[in-house]
């Protein structure tokens, strides 16, 4: 105990004695209270520290209390005893804690004393680490000239970091060998991104990184990169993604090739395969998938040669399958689009378009077998009034068979007969009508029948026996939509060679009725509308059943309607 503390105790004793009365009574008990907290000490972070004090004098039982500045979590289970404990906190730097003990006797007299506990950090130094990804195609540690390489020290660790997610406080990169590549480069980040130098000779670049933890400890590690010479550095190429297509479809060949060596340009490019390639010396080109009878794989090899004679190859594989028997028509679209134009040219940068896949483009390449004829992927056969097949160039026919769907369609005329193109009908059907049969003979309808409606027309055509058939009916929505030729822009959207007199665009919309009542427009649980398709725009919509629309009847098909 220091001399100062002794002086403090003497002064306290004199004051307590002065308060004790006349001082002449030898039987007055000595209530002077003395306490000692013990000597100052130094401990390591995380250590369990026991506090123990001594006291003398006082009146009766004593109560003990410990406090610390700055605050510590002191465990003191029994305050009638001086013993207490605490665990020294984990610190980045050393810190002093003033710990005070106060003792109070039964008469309320108190005395205090303090000690200083210095807590010293017990720091584990960090461990520096540098990770560098191998360059594809090169031996570990070798890198081309003129390429960006990332040196990553984010894997450095510190066993006793206060924040395990961020154990390193700072990074410092230094280059120790080779052509300087750190000018204008950030060197105080976890990652160092450099560009390898272009030189006539192979060289070694060496780097170190020093990492510092939150407590100021450091560690350093190093790495070496071997950089190829300009003449050794080969072009970078990528043939593209493997694909699966049907015979006759377009195979997208969108290669990528470049060199990091300016003097190695220009690059000579060539594609090779058993399939015919449209422009084999262009990085961006396409091929027509060959005709196959079974699943067949074709390998396309992209070869690039630089001005230094370095040659690099890459391949992609294309699976080609026979085109299946179509059960539905394609759209008729063979054009392709960019962000701002419509074109007939192959657009590799916008793959997967309608104009690159399906029956239409296969027909365009001459690889689609047809039983009859027709534009794009459509396959139609003309039938005469007896239902017999006619040549595709015949100008006299009454029906058309769709060889894809198996449906047989009525052909409109310009003869002012039952099938005339100018006749219009309201939608009327006594069964399957959605709760409302429709209008038997609405305003604006016109035809050769007494009642110009869809049911009357079906009955009249079946009574006539068009093309020798007596089972004509109204088409479903999907059946009628199968005739829409979305590739047509200047005429009605249908193959006009097989379906003349569908209507003129200046008279649009060109609504044709389907057999399907519309769920929209229900009144008193009765459907007031029915679906129709506009052959001027290709859109479908519901029309009020009293609307005057055109009819194209259908029969047969691959499955029941």
Automatic annotation (TrEMBL):
Residues 399-555 form the Lcl C-terminal domain. It comes from the Bacteria. Pfam families: K319L-like_PKD, Lcl_C. This is DUF1566 domain-containing protein. The lineage of its organism: Bacteria, Pseudomonadati, Pseudomonadota, Gammaproteobacteria, Alteromonadales.
């Amino acid at each position: 105990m220091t001399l100062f503390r002794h002086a403090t105790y003497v002064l306290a004793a004199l004051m307590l004695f002065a308060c004790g009365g006349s001082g002449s009574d030898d039987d007055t008990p000595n209530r002077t209270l003395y306490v000692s907290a013990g000597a100052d000490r130094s401990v390591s972070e995380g250590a369990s520290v026991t506090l123990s004090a001594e006291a003398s004098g006082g009146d009766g039982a004593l109560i003990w209390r410990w406090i610390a500045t700055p605050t510590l979590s002191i465990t003191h289970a029994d305050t009638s005893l001086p013993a207490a404990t605490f665990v020294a906190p984990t610190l980045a730097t050393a810190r002093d804690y003033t710990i005070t003990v106060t003792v109070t006797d039964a008469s309320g007299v108190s005395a205090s004393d303090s000690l200083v506990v210095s807590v010293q950090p017990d720091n584990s130094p960090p461990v520096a680490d540098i990770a560098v990804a191998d360059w594809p195609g090169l031996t570990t540690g070798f890198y081309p000239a003129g390429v960006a390489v990332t040196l990553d020290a984010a894997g450095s660790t510190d066993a006793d970091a206060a924040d395990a997610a961020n154990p390193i406080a700072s990074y410092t990169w230094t280059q120790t060998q080779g052509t300087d590549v750190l000018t204008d480069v950030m060197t105080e980040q976890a990652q160092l991104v450099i560009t390898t130098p272009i030189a006539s000779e192979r060289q070694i670049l060496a780097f170190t990184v020093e990492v510092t933890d939150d407590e100021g400890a450091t560690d350093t590690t190093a790495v070496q990169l071997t950089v190829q010479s300009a003449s050794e550095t080969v072009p970078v190429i990528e043939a593209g993604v493997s694909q699966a297509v049907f015979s006759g479809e377009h195979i997208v060949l969108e290669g990528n090739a470049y060199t990091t060596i300016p003097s190695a340009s220009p690059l000579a490019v060539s594609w090779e395969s058993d399939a015919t390639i449209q422009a084999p010396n262009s990085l961006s080109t396409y091929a027509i998938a060959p005709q196959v009878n079974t699943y067949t794989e074709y390998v396309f090899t992209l070869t690039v040669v630089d001005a230094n004679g370095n040659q690099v190859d890459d391949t992609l594989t294309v699976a080609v399958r026979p085109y299946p028997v179509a059960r539905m028509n394609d759209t008729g679209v063979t054009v392709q689009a960019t962000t701002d134009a419509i074109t007939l040219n192959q657009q590799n940068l916008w793959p997967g378009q309608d104009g690159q896949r399906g029956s239409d483009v296969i027909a365009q390449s001459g690889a689609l077998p047809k039983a009859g004829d027709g534009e794009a992927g459509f396959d139609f056969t003309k039938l005469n009034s007896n239902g017999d097949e006619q040549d595709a160039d015949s100008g006299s026919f009454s029906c058309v068979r769709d060889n894809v769907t198996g449906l047989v369609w009525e052909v409109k005329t310009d003869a002012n007969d039952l099938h005339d193109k100018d006749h219009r009908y309201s939608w009327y059907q006594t069964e399957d009508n959605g709760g409302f049969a429709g209008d038997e003979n609405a305003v604006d309808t016109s035809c050769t029948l007494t009642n110009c409606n869809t049911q009357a027309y079906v009955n009249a055509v079946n009574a006539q026996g068009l093309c020798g058939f007596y089972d004509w009916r109204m088409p479903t929505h999907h059946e009628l939509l199968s005739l829409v030729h979305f590739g047509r822009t200047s005429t009605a959207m249908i193959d006009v060679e097989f379906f003349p007199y569908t209507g003129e665009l200046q008279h649009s919309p060109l609504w044709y009725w389907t057999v399907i009542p519309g769920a929209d427009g229900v009144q008193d649980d009765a459907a007031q509308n029915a679906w129709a398709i506009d052959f001027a725009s290709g859109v479908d919509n519901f029309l009020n059943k009293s609307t005057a629309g055109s009819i194209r009847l259908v029969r047969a098909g691959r499955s029941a309607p």
